Amino acid sequence: MSMLELRKISKSYGQGANEVDALTDIDLSVERGSLVAIMGPSGSGKSTLLTIAGSLEEPTSGDVVIDGVRLSGMSRNDKARLRRRSIGYVFQDFNLLAGLTAVENVSLPLELDGVSLKKARSKGMEALERLGLGDRATNYPDQLSGGERQRVAIARAVVGERSLLLADEPSGALDSLNGEAVMRMILSACHGGVAAVVVTHDAKLASWADRVVFLRDGKAVDETLPPPTPEELLAPDVPNPA
Amino acid sequence: MSIRHSLLALLSEGPKYGFQLRQEFEASTGEIWPLNVGQVYTTLQRLERDGLASSDDVEDVERQKNYRITELGSVELSRWLRTPPDLSEPPRDELVIKVLVASRLPDVDVYEVIQVHRRYIVQLMQQWTHLKEDESHFDLAFALAVDAELFRLDAVVRWLDAADGRLHRAALEPAPEDHVALPSIRRRTGAHR
């Protein structure tokens, strides 16, 4: 069963003559353990798609199904609970709270969900350590480098039992090696069973994904074929990158 | 890519046999550019002819000649390392030409043509990225060579994206008649050899 399924999602803003279609009939399915990238130019609907997938915004029509549960029938409170428990977000500007330390930022979603402070902090520390930031846990965001802040944001997105990771241009203004480190972390979360969707206009980031979906004017126009297995790469009839 | 200078660089580390040079060349380029042993010996003969390398007159027991760099060879290697490759003139890029041609043909959807190439290149990039995914066998030369390839392909995708956007904009605001001719890039950039 897919962790995320978008069925015929459309979204329009405005009414009558001013109506603008941001998304039209998008179908997308993301399995646990897989990383899907959405590529497209500015204004193609990438970010809207992500906010709808994360239940931060309602589609005009179509269904969002997360872990087998349709969002359209859910109450606001239930949706908020689902967001806290199952969905992690990573934004390009990190969105860390300046007055909280790294570990407080990471454990906040668990505390909001009613997990005890002690348990939340311990899970937060665990997530930070997994990303190599154990020694920075008590630092405030302004004491961290850009790369470290984004690692904290990823730790916050995957803390607890979250199984859907949604990232919008997650490497932001980071240099290419830090951008690569961010993608390695997202990929490692996927290897641990998380389903991830990354929207980006950067082909180098998108190339970490199992599948790249191309968005244009709110429509999914194309997608990459699945990457060849090592055996296929060695087979003489498949074009080898070398 | 200059095999000639790469072999000189390897010889600057000390005398080597032809077969050894081939192995070390492949290792130093992350094994991305395979080299056949024939190319190695032809290049070594030319280096010798030009006085940039010398070899023992007699082959050893395993019938191999030992090659070493000459003083002239060291000067040439140093000159080559510091000479920028000629990037002043735009290469005759097949993909650029295809998009330029597609943009002028009335029955061709240029955006579809661009997307075919964009998808192909992103797939190639996925294959390269996949190769560097496994860090347990990290090889610096390989990582550098893969990065170079990814940046090169990324530049092509960026150009396709820019071309896509520019063509869309141009379609909304048709250019005046006298601007229809293809621009002379050589004239505009002033590029010349």
Indicate the topology:
The complex is a heterodimer of chains A (242) and B (193).
Chain A: E1 4-13, E2 20-30, E3 35-39, H1 46-53, E4 61-66, E5 69-70, H2 76-86, E6 87-90, H3 102-112, H4 117-130, H5 146-158, E7 164-168, H6 176-191, E8 195-200, H7 203-206, E9 211-216, E10 219-223, H8 230-234
Parallel strand pairs in A: 3-8, 3-9, 6-7, 7-8
Antiparallel strand pairs in A: 1-2, 1-4, 4-5, 9-10
Chain B: H1 3-11, E1 16-17, H2 18-28, H3 37-49, E2 53-55, E3 66-69, H4 71-82, H5 94-104, H6 110-133, H7 140-172, H8 185-189
Antiparallel strand pairs in B: 1-3, 2-3
Describe this structure in words.
The complex is a heterodimer of chains A (242) and B (193). Chain A is of the alpha/beta class. Chain A has a single domain, classed as Rossmann fold, CATH 3.40.50. Chain A has eight helices and ten strands. In chain A, the strands form two sheets. A six-stranded mixed β-sheet of chain A has the order 6-7-8-3-9-10, with helices on both faces. In chain A, strands 2-1-4-5 form a four-stranded antiparallel β-sheet, covered by helices on one side. Chain A starts with a strand and ends in an 8-residue tail after the last helix. Chain B is mainly alpha-helical and 193 residues long. Chain B folds into two domains: 3-82, Winged helix-like DNA-binding domain superfamily/Winged helix DNA-binding domain (Arc Repressor Mutant, subunit A), CATH 1.10.10; 94-189, no CATH class. Chain B is 61% helix and 5% strand. In chain B, α1 packs across α3, α2 crosses α3 (37-49) and α5 packs antiparallel against α6 (110-133). Chain B is elongated, with a radius of gyration of 23 Å.
